[in-house]
Each structure stands twice: as C-alpha cells, then as structure tokens.
Amino acid sequence: MTFDTTIAPTGFGRLVKGQTAIDFYGRRRGGFIAAAVVVLITVVSLFTQGLNLGLDFEGGDAWDIPASETFGVDEAQEVLDANDVSTTGARIQLRSSETADVITVQVEELPREQAAEVTADFAAAAGVTVEDISFSFTSSTWGGEITEAAVRALVIFLFIVAIFISVRFEWRMALSALTAMAHDVVAAVGVYSVFQFEVTPATVIAFLTILGYSLYDTIVVFDRVRENEGKFAGVRMPYVDVVNISVNQVVVRSVITSMSSVLPVISLLLVGSGLLGAVTLREFALALLVGMLAGVYSSIFIASPMLATLKARTGRTSHRERLTGDRLRAAVIGAGFTGRVEAAPEPQPAVVGATHDGSDTDDGSLVQPADRLLTHPPRPRKKKRR
Amino acid sequence: MHRRLWFSLIGVVLIVSTTLAANLATGNTPILGLDLQGGVSVILAPTEPATNEDLLVIRDLIRDELESRGIAEPDVRVQGDTIVVDLPGVRDQQEALSAVDVSGVVELRPVLNFSDCPVPDATDPALGLGDDGSLAPAGTVAGSEEPQGFRRSAPDPDTTTPETVPETIPDTVPDDTVPVTPTPVPTGVPGAELLPTRDGAVQCVGPAQGTGEVFERGSATLTLDAGFGVAVDLRGDGQATWNNLASQCYNAAPTCPSTQPGVRGQIAIVLDSVVQSSPQVNQPNFTDSVAITGSFTREEAEALVAVLNRGAFPVEVEAQEARTVSASAGSDSLQAAVIAGLLGMVLVVGFLIAYYRWLAIVIVGGLVVWAAMVFSLASLVSGWTNYALSLAGITGIIVAIGVTVDSYVVFFERIKDELRNGRTIKNAAPRSFKMTWRTILSADVISLIGAFILFWLSVGSVRGFALYLGLTTVADLLVCYFFTRPAVLLLARTKLMARREKVLGLEVATA
Question: Nearest by CB to B355, which of A208, A227, A256?
C-alpha cells in the first residue's frame, strides 16, 4: 500500500498531485495591479459611455400590429433585422384575445425617422395600412423601486455576510473576501459597459450569481487557511507562509472546480447562442463566464494576498525569509516541516523516498524528508463489530 | 455505522425518486416565466386623463399589490396611455382580470353636516337606512377588518355593505365617527355626498381636496400614546395641500364645518368611496408629519396604517381587456438553454470521469439525485408561491452545477491529500468528510443567507433568483450529507478501492 511520493517533474503533474510551490504572496503586486487595471477600465468606461440599459430599465418603442396567417412573430423579427434594429433585448410577442390577435414588438428607443421606417415596413409586411398599427412609447417595467429594494437587500446581505465571516473566521477575511467579490462584479459590469451590451433584468441576475459564486470560492480557500493556521500554530509559522501553503493546497481544487463550472457556461455560449441561435443567451453567458473566471482568479490572487498583507503586521513576526521554492513545496505537501528548520537541507536532486520499489530515478525530484509521513501514524483500528 | 450509511443512501434515493415520480405523475412542473412560456396580459386604462407620472406611480402600486398577493414576477409597464400587466403562470383570462383588479383611490374630503348632502335614495341599503326611511344609528362591526377589505375596487354597494350591523347602539361610539343627525335636508353643497363608513354608518363628505398622494408612501406607523393612533409623514409637495384642508377644518370654515358642538372640523380619509377614518383636526398647520389619534381599536389603527402604506392611486384605472401572451424569448431559447445545459453536464461529467475515474460514479449519481431534488423542490415551491422559472433562472441553475460539483472536488481532493499522507482510504474518507463538510457548510451558509435576505427584502425577478439560489443550495447540502457521504464511505470499504491509484485516477499524475 505504498504511494508514489516523488515530486512530479511537470507543472501539470505537480498541480494534480498537489505539489505546487507558487509564491502567491510574492506575486501579489501583479494581482493587485491587474485588479486595479480592471477596476480602472470599468470606471472609465462607466463614466464615458455608461451602461446600455435595456427596454426593461429605460422603456422604448412599442408597436401593436394586427397578426395574420402571413404575419407572425418570425416575420416581425425579420423586419427588425432588415432595419438593423438590435433584437437582443427586443421582445416580440403574440397577444391573442377573442376579438383580435396582435403582435406586440418592443425594442429600445429608436430615432424618430428610423421608427417611422420600421412602422412602414411592418405595415407592408403585415399587409395593413400604417394607421392600423399602433405605435407608442413603452415605459420601463423595472421601476426605481425595484432597484432600490434590491440594493437595500444587497447592502444588508453584505453586512450580515461580513459579520458572519468575522465571527466564523475573522474580520480581515471578511474584508478580503468582500474586496475580491467587488472586483469580480466590477469586472463583469465592465464587460457590459465596454462592449455596450444591453443590460436586462437577466443581467442583474447574472451579476448576483457572480457575486455569490465569488464569495463561495473565497470562503473555500479561507477555510483551508484557517485550518492550517491551527495546524501550524505550534511551530510559529508566519501568517504569510500559512496563506501561501493553503493556497497551494487548494489550487488544484480551484482549477477543477472552475473547469466544471465554466464548461456548462461555455456550452451555453457556444452551443446555445452560437449554433442554436438563441441570442438572448449570448451576452448573459459571456458575463457569467467573465465573472466566474474572475471569481476563481480573485480568491487566489486578490483575496489571499490581501489577507496575508492585512495579517502580516499583526501576527507572529519572524526574522527569517518567507518560504519559497522547495521549502514551500515541502510545507505544502505536509512533509513534516517544522518551521524551526532554519537551515533547511539543500535540495538534493535525488529520490530517497518511499517510492514503489525504492529504485532511484534521477528525475530532478525533491528529497523527501524522513518525517514526510504523518507525525503520528493513524490509530490502529479496533477490531470491533461493524 | 455501516447500516446507518446504507439507510441514509437508500433513504435519500427512495425519497427523491418517489417525490419526482409523484411530481411527474401529477403533472406538477415548475411554472415557466413570461419569457419562456408567456402568460396572460391585462390592459388597464385610467378612467380620466392622467399624466405619465401618474401612470408610473400606478405601475409601481400594481406591481406591489400583485406581489403582496402572491402573484410573482409580473411584468408591469406603461404603454402609451395604458398600463399593460403581464402575468406569468396564470391560466385563463378571467383569472387574470380579477387578479389585477387592484384599483383604489384615497381621497381626503372634509366632513360636512348631513344637511349639506342631497337626500339619499331611500332604498339604498348601503347607506344604512332603516325601514322607516330614517338613518339607522351608527353601528360598529366588532373587532376586525380583513385585509381584503381594502382591495375592494369599485364602490359597489353590495361589497361595501357591512356583513353585520348590530341592532343596538354600542356603548362607545368612536370619536372619529360622527353621530348621525336624523334630519336630512334636501339642499346640498356641490360635490357633497353620503358615503358609508367602515363600521356601517354613513357620513356626509364634501368634494375631495386632495388624494392620498400627500402622504409619503410606506411611512405610516402605529403609535400607542394614550390609545392607538397612526403617524404618517407628509410629502414635500403634499404638505401645502394637506395644510390647506387642515386649516379650513381647524377654523371650522363653511367648507369644513364643525359637525358637533365643541368639536373641530374633520377630515375624512376615503378609500374607494368608503370612509376609512375621519379624524378631527387639532392644529391648523402641520410640518412633515401628521398624527391621527382617536379612540381607535388596535385593528382600526392597523387597518388605517395598511391603507396609508399601500399608497394611493392618483387616478382610478379600469381593466379593459385580457389577452394571452406568447413567450417573449422565443421557444428556441428554452430549447437552446436546455440542450446547452445538458451538453455542459455531459462535458463536466466526462471531465470528472477522466480525472477521478471510478469515484466519478458518485458524482454522477449525486448530480442525478441533485437534479431530481431541485426539480421536485422547484415544482412544489412554484406551486405554492407562483414563482416562475425564467431563462435567467435556468441559467442560474446551470451555474449551480459548478457549485454542486465543487463539494465533490473539495471532498475528493482532501481524500487524496490524506492518502498521500499515508492513510488508508478506509481511514481517510471519514476524516476528509469531516473537514469537507465544515468548508461546504461555511460557504453554503453564506449563499443561504444571501438567498433569504434577497427573497425577503427584494421584489420581482431578484426575488425569483433568490428562491432558486436557496433551493439549489439546500439541495447541494442535502445531497452532500445524505448521498455523497454514505456513498463514498461505503465505497471506501470495498475491495475496489484497495487498488486506489487506478480508482482515484492518481496515476495520471505519476510521471
């Protein structure tokens, strides 16, 4: 029942085996700068061109056209396409009552002339006169009150989450997690602003989804940090190292989870909107994709280094250098690192460890310290009735 | 231990499959949103010319009213001069018409002497006339006023007639109702009319001098200061209107005379032609807020608070016609989302099988149980609450797949860690689960908090989102504890797992 404990030579192999030794804290500046750039782009874009608020937020134009056998939802769609009217946020519905069937078309507000042209085209397509078509302005359905209520709920939620994380973990984690979350939502909003996608109620839902996903991801990472905090408390491990070790331990989980979360969204993006032509899905899926990738990114490159930075000043101070390279790796794989081993042995490119057959394969692997295995072996199982 | 695991595993599978079968057999499926399935649309038009602002106020009021009655996620907008209300999950047009019958205009009218009112039609039972043609004494309906009482629409005499009018005069007539003067004189002030009060009496009121819009919406509160009372804030622009009326009544001007000796003029608060309350005015000028006191019972005060908080329609609206509405997103959107979602599932499962090998069967089983559970819960909940599943909701569920899979990933990665540390899989599995459960619980509790708060405090589609977020999270926790845990723990004891390198897909990493 031996287990291969050699260090994998390839980056991917090390990732899969949980043997990475990436100095995330040392690279925090890169993460912070990238985040600052994202936020800056979004803010600039929001101020210069703002968000393209859709029909449900700003209202728009509406036509009521008598429906007939030759004029239905698809024909109305064609007329809009022919006039270069964006149909992403458009709503084309058949409204039928006992007396009459009507096609209602609602689109974002158009310039007067274009609207008149579209009216004429609708009349031609439906085979009726322009007078038979009622053209009117339609208001938003998403009134200011809905936004107000949603924002109020969100603020209260974030407040309670901050308290929850502070109690269950600590306030620095709450601050870091919320910062990372803000970054992710800003990134997703930025996509909408920069590319001028139409914001619909579904988009707001996408933003909320991203918000929840980001918090979830960060909490999973922080839970490991807290666990390791206790584990390494005895050896007075500096907090920065604890964070680095923890993030390295969960990075494989982050990669696999993000793969499995992103795959359905990519499928939605490519298959749903690309091949099957459901345009509504496209922008929505894109926002989700960006937000979810940002969520995974931010918990590793923003939340964790930020936590370490916040904590570095208050926690145990250490005179020695931060763990890096193979010494970090040793700690990550739980190789009995004690923190007191100030002068760690030079990494020897030889395998001494407990490989299957004990054969020495000189592939540049790390020395396995003698106390690599558990400091205390598993308790022998009692032979009791099961 | 062993037996309990089997019990939990088989139990959860049985419960979930029975519920699913029951749901399918009864045809109970989640209501689909307007964008996916369409619904019924009702067109409302104001009975008198209204400004666009008025219509927007009515739009918000109608939406609130519909939501408070459990019709979720209505799509209400002003189109031209009309208000269009689209309702998801409503089956027929008649149901829709009665659902949006939420009209209600609050008026502020001065209380007049009965001599100022025209003689009422003696046969109108709504005005509480006795057999002999004289006005019946004011009665009080004991105790309570049902909330529905405020949703009466048109001033239909049948519905405004109190159910019971006591024969005897109650010992205490509330101060805010006027003792009836039994000498009606057939002269009249223009616009004056007799209106029934909530307790079955009648009151003569002058023409409306203001509407409920003078009050800040939602600001009314119950006060308890020497008896129950109501405090309500005045809107900035409503203050002048209110004070104009108040000073007339305070000074007992002819337009708002004192109807009883020693009592100042009274302002009647009228909802849909029913006098809700007619407090006397004790000061000529009000700033910011108004306190209405009197010998209210608690119920009366609460009812008044409800009326004032509900807000007032600036003008009356009438339902004109109902139409069925087709889906707005197009049927291909739903199909595309479902196909893409299924394909995404297949991709995820393929990826996980490649990575976790045999352990992936637990994931596949777990996802199936999870999906069945979410479907059943969604069917049940949308049956109770009318929350519709929109395209956004479906994509939200697709995203939730990722979070659900994460529970397995956290668990399995932890098991691998423990194995690398030299434990046997039999030993590693329960230990790992303990750690994993803590992590997942922390992360999921935050999602649940979010779902609760958003559901509780927000409206419209955000609320629907919160509902489905909560459902998927609860399903995730249940599946994790009652399915994944026993499945993995039992699997860990099998011989299959002894050759764990292959079973766990660990040799992928071995260079």
Answer: A256
Q: Which of A292, A312, A332 is the last residue of a domain?
A: A312
**B90 vs A192, which has greater pLDDT?**
A192
Yes or no, beta carbons of B501 and A253 under 8 Å apart:
no
Q: How far, in Å, CA of B181 to CA of B383, rounded?
A: 53
Residue of B nearest to A150 (CA): B458
Tokens of A8: 């994998």
| Nearest chain A residue to B422, by CA | A373
In-domain check, residue A30: yes
Point out which residues pair with A62 in neighbouring strands.
A106, A136
Domain with B356, as residue range(s), is: 2-34+329-508
Q: What is the CATH number of the domain that holds A258?
A: 1.20.1640.10
Quote the CA–CA distance of A113 and A280 in Å, as a whole number: 27
Task: Report helix, strand or coil for B129.
Answer: strand
Q: What is the pLDDT of residues A104-155, one digit of tens each?
A: 888 877 877 888 888 888 888 877 877 777 777 777 777 677 778 888 888 8
Residues A107 and A155 in one domain: no
* Residue A127 belongs to some domain of the structure: yes
> Which of A266, A273, A374 has its CB closest to that of B422?
A374
Closest CA to B176 of B51, B80, B303, B71: B303
| CB atoms B340 and A264 under 8 Å | yes
Q: Are B417 and B484 in contact (CB under 8 A)?
A: no
Q: Are B115 and B183 in contact (CB under 8 A)?
A: yes
Q: What is the pLDDT of residue B152?
A: 33
Answer whether B343 sits within 8 Å of A253, measured CB to CB.
no
Is the same domain home to A48 and A76? no
Backbone torsions φ then ψ of A352, nearest 5 degrees: -110, -15
Smallest CA–CA distance from B78 into chain A, residue: A139
Residue A161 Cα, gap to closest chain B Cα (Å): 6
- Output the pLDDT for position A368: 43
- Pair (A176, A207) in one structural domain: yes
Residues A184 and A270 placed together within one structural domain of the fold: yes
Compare CB distances from B323 to A96, A263, A267 and report the shortest one's residue. A96
Per the CB < 8 A criterion, the answer to whether A370 and A351 are in contact is no
B228 CA to centre of own chain: 27
What was the pLDDT predicted at A43? 92
Residues A188 and A224 in one domain: yes
A82 belongs to a structural domain: yes
Rg of chain A on CA atoms, in Å: 29
Domain count, chain A: 2
Position A292 scores a pLDDT of: 85
Q: Cα angle at B504 between B498 and B507, to 5 degrees? A: 100
CA distance, residue B441 to nearest chain A CA (Å): 10
Residue of chain A nearest B412, judged by CA positions: A253
Residues forming a β-bridge with A91:
A106
Stated pTM of the model? 0.69
Determine the distance in angstroms separating the CA of A222 from the nearest CA of chain B, rounded to an integer: 9
Which CATH number do you get for residue A115?
3.30.70.260
Q: Quote the distance between the C-alpha of residue B467 and its chain's center.
A: 13
- Which residues face B231 on adjacent strands? B221, B291
> Does B302 lie in the same domain as B159?
yes
- Domain limits for position A108: 60-138
Give the minimum alpha-carbon distance from B287 to chain A in angstroms, rounded to a whole number: 26
User: What is the tally of structural domains in chain B?
Assistant: 3
Q: Which amino acid is at A25?
A: Y
* Contact across the interface for B454 and A259, Cβ inside 8 Å: no
Which residue of B75, B79, B495, B503 to mutate against A (max A Cβ within 10 Å)?
B79
Indicate the residue type of A55.
L
Confidence of residue B140 (pLDDT cuts 50, 70, 90): very low
